[in-house]
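Structure (tokenized):
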């Protein structure tokens, strides 16, 4: 039986492709709360659940019930996780970090909310650089890449004045467990650390710092510059697969003031708010 807390967990292992036993210890909820919930801090409550359908769906339900900003939900396994554009996202128990946070950016105009998933991508990439020593980059809007392969994805959903931002990070998935051939994990990338508690602490610390700076000054140029510093898409020839089946091909020129991708096509500059980007070189 898996439970929330340091004792009574099944510390499972899995064999990597090289025949090395990889530990998958459970998260210690009490230790995470001690690290992350501080007086005056953004995070006010943190739950670890052994399994759920979707951490985003759970927190959207909390938002509808009036929950305050700063709630964090982590699941050791998701059975009905959702990615962008309606895709499913699942992983073996304790092989990934699956986390959602509830935010209420009261002072930010809804037209600026498109920056929040991009800001979350920056937080994940920065944490991977600092904690796992991997060369993380971002593919617009917020896929996190290592070596050109997807290692993490982000989904932000709004309800009323609340935004739930969720991320899934592949930590100890083996090649056989990856959701798609173009994906990777920290284990497969030779990361310096696969400690999920350290990684989660690093991501949430980066996210709290960036979110508070953005909420205080959502029009500041710093976030645009910060995002471009991590973005592997701008400057690249791209194909953008649009919702509904449309396609755009051109050069990714910039990200505009609301987080949309500016693509220079043969017929002119197109601004893309949602879509799948394929780097063509």
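Design, position by position:
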């Amino acid at each position: 039986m898996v439970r929330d807390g340091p004792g009574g967990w099944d510390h499972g292992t899995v064999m990597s492709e090289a025949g090395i036993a990889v530990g998958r210890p459970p998260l210690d909820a009490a230790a995470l709360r001690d690290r992350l919930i501080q007086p005056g801090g953004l995070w006010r409550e943190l739950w670890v659940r052994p399994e759920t359908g979707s951490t985003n769906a759970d927190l959207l339900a909390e938002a509808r019930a009036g929950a305050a900003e700063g709630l964090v939900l982590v699941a050791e396994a998701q059975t009905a996780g959702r990615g962008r554009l309606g895709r499913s996202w699942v992983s073996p128990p304790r092989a990934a970090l699956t986390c959602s946070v509830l935010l209420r950016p009261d002072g930010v105009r809804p037209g600026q909310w498109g920056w929040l998933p991009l800001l979350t991508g920056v937080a994940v990439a920065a944490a991977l650089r600092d904690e796992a020593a991997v060369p993380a980059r971002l593919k617009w809007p917020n896929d996190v890449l290592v070596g050109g392969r997807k290692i993490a994805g982000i989904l932000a959903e709004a309800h009323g004045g609340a935004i739930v931002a969720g991320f899934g990070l592949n930590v100890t998935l083996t090649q056989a467990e990856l959701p798609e051939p173009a994906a990777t994990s920290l284990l497969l990338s030779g990361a310096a650390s696969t400690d999920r508690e350290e990684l989660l602490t690093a991501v949430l610390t980066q996210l709290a710092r960036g979110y508070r700076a953005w909420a205080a000054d959502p029009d500041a140029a710093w976030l645009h510059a910060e995002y471009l510093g991590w973005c592997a898409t701008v400057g690249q020839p791209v194909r953008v697969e649009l919702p509904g089946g449309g396609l755009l091909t051109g050069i990714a020129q910039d990200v505009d003031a609301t987080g949309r991708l500016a693509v220079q096509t043969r017929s002119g500059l197109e601004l893309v708010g949602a879509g799948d980007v394929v780097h063509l070189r």
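Reviewer-requested clarification: Residues 196-216 form the longest helix (21 residues). The first strand starts at residue 12 and ends at 15.
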